[in-house]
Amino acid sequence: MLKIENLSCQRSNDLVFNDLSFEVSKGTNTEIIGSNGSGKTSLLKCILGLIEKKQGKISWKQKPIEETRTFFLKSCFYQGHQLALKNNFTVFENLKFSHSIFNSNEEKIMSSLKEVDLFEYRERTSSDLSMGQLKRLAIAKWLLDEHELYLIDEPFASLDQEGILLVSSIIKKLNSKGCSFLFTSHTSSNIDSREILLDNYS
């Protein structure tokens, strides 16, 4: 589905990673593990076309991604370090705003909030939530619509053990529907995935 071949990326004049190759198949997970500055976020942004690659090839469904960028972007969901939540909106309003993008109905919004254990906080302003709760709210966006590929920067950061188990179960549920995940982390998440140590490609 997504194929990376001999990919290299640089930040300013510094080579971030070099000669990286892997493939993400339908319904599977690929975990990019690396230390700070190893290029985890740069890799996701390179795939999305937000930064230019130095060399190598990125393919989506056997076509160069440059030829199918619009279709690719419609098929994937990206969530970076910035959770893209509006602090002055309530929990419900944040998802309703996303609903206008993903064309989800109100029933889907409520179902998503229940799944991440935030239904009782639906009228609370996002600025009043803890970091763990904000992460759960961001994760609820995954459930508003099903995407072929999820590109997620450190989905387990700022979560307690209960939150980690919740995210793992949601990923597994989406996998069962054919959705794939490419996500980053500092250490192994112990989720069923192919692990790639990005520090080996510096």
Automatic annotation (TrEMBL):
Molecular function via GO: ATP binding; ATP hydrolysis activity; transmembrane transporter activity
UniProt entry keywords in alphabetical sequence: ATP-binding, Cytochrome c-type biogenesis, Membrane, Nucleotide-binding, Translocase, Transport
Limits of the ABC transporter domain: 2-200
InterPro entries linked to this entry: AAA+_ATPase (IPR003593), ABC_transporter-like_ATP-bd (IPR003439), ABC_transptr_haem_export_CcmA (IPR005895), P-loop_NTPase (IPR027417)
The UniProt record lists the keyword Transcription regulation: no
Gene3D superfamilies for this protein: P-loop containing nucleotide triphosphate hydrolases (3.40.50.300)
Pfam families in the cross-refs: ABC_tran
Biological process (GO), any one: cytochrome complex assembly
Keyword Zinc tagged: no
Protein's name in the database: ABC transporter domain-containing protein
